[in-house]
Batch of 2 targets.
Target 1
Amino acid sequence: MCGRYTLRNSRAVKDKHLLNIDASYNIAPSHEVLTLTSTPTFMRWSYNPTWAKTPMNLINARSETLNLKPSFKMARRCLIPADGWFEWLRTDYKKQPYFFHMNDSLFTFAGIYTEYNGVRGCAIITKEAIQNLSKVHHRMPIIISDNEAENWLSGEDVFDSKLSEDIDYYPVSTLVNSPRNNNIDCVKLFD
């Protein structure tokens, strides 16, 4: 699962996508997030099938059921720029947050989107975590490399990017638990 992520490197976003954005250290569900389709656009991180009578507000979609579940049949594809994400390791006594990253490198998550009641909303596609990341959480977002982006957007299932092997992680403070906290302290190493 991916329930929080970052887009801290606003300079890389400007250089790559010609957009000025504020650095975000704690992007949470229901926030307006940068997505890439044919052009960069902002959508709500909250996916709803067009046929739903009440909002489902999905934030993740499993790659294993993407082509099977009715909820995703009408979905269109997008990319969601990021430079890190958070997962929580559950122990008997607490949930310790960890920050996953490739230093300051910008990458993109595989995503899907629809329009529900006039609002575009997206979800991040996840898969089983690779072995060295599964120590913290059993799921991870699918990372799409630049040379796989067009394939993903045109409908090809790209679920095994080699970029996943470049991800590192470390523990961070529980500041990230509240979406009101959106500053560099959310990604500082926690001792």
Note: Residues 10-17 form the longest helix (8 residues).
Target 2
Amino acid sequence: MQDKVRVGVIGSGFIGNIHVDGLKHVPEAEIVAVASKTPGKARAFADQWRIPDAYEDYRDILQRDDIDAVTVGVPNYLHEEVVIAAAEAGKHIMCEKPFARTIEEAQNMLAAVKKASVKLVYGEMLCFAPKYARAKKLVDEGAVGKVFRIKQSEEHDGPHSPWFWDVNLSGGGVLLDMGCHSIEFARWILDRPPVKSVWASLGTYVHQDKTQGDDHSICVIEFAGGAVAIAENSWGKTGGIEDRCEIYGSHGNTMADLIHGNALITHSKTGYGYAVEKADTTTGWTFTGFEEEWNYGFPQEMQHFINVVLGREQPIETGEDGLEVLKIIYAAYQSAGEGRRIDFPYDPPTVEKPIDLWLKAT
């Protein structure tokens, strides 16, 4: 029986670093290669993480018979191409969020995975964050009674790479980039009931000079059974990242803060090297993070991916989940553009990007 999974890492940016850091915590994973199209970047990345082989073309990873699985941490506009190529090469796949830019891309990816009979895990780490996993267990145990309201928010002052600002490359603004986290968190907590309606309000309040995309979004989702989820996300919040949830039920409630609840409250007149993701200063009062990747759930997510490849677990997050989240995001952009609630069942366009439904209406 296979007891080791040999992994190729595709992408050497912010997410690539997170994937490798997570995999380093997994005893059954062996990282054997990395690919990045930027000349020299893959080699530098490989040297940093002590990965044996580096390539400028990800297809060199896919051609290797000694690689079992890949992580896909490339920009959104490359997800379809890379996932389909990986599936056709017989590699198991962990694809970072959001799953795709369009419904058509997502459907093509799922079809390729199904045809090749490979395993795919959708990269939603909030389901593995220790505090959020404990919140889910509380709900499942009945600790708060019947859940009627969920709020999840992830907020900071903008994305890591310039391509995010280009809606043609990314497919959307903050709602697509980070709202996908909040939406899937709510679906997961509620055991993924059908959606009844979606309403959203979007705006570009801070970064009009950089993007046509939304930099603050509020999305309200009504589920069958009566529960309501609020997804509020921002690229306009200064001072470092925020990641919080609130769950209200008929017999109680629970709340979690992934960032501040795990931080050292620090005051420094001179500043220091690093406080927390997206913090623009380390002088004065700051929240100094530690074990961020563990608190976010990335090592646990990678352990789950390897367990799926080894046949020990079924995916908690599937490509189909990624597609369902994308459908809700389409409805939210249409709602914001047309100023009305979108009722489900809902048949979104397959080729247009979700943000097109907002831009053409505004």
Note: Residues 127-295+324-359 form a domain with the Dihydrodipicolinate Reductase; domain 2 fold (CATH 3.30.360.10).
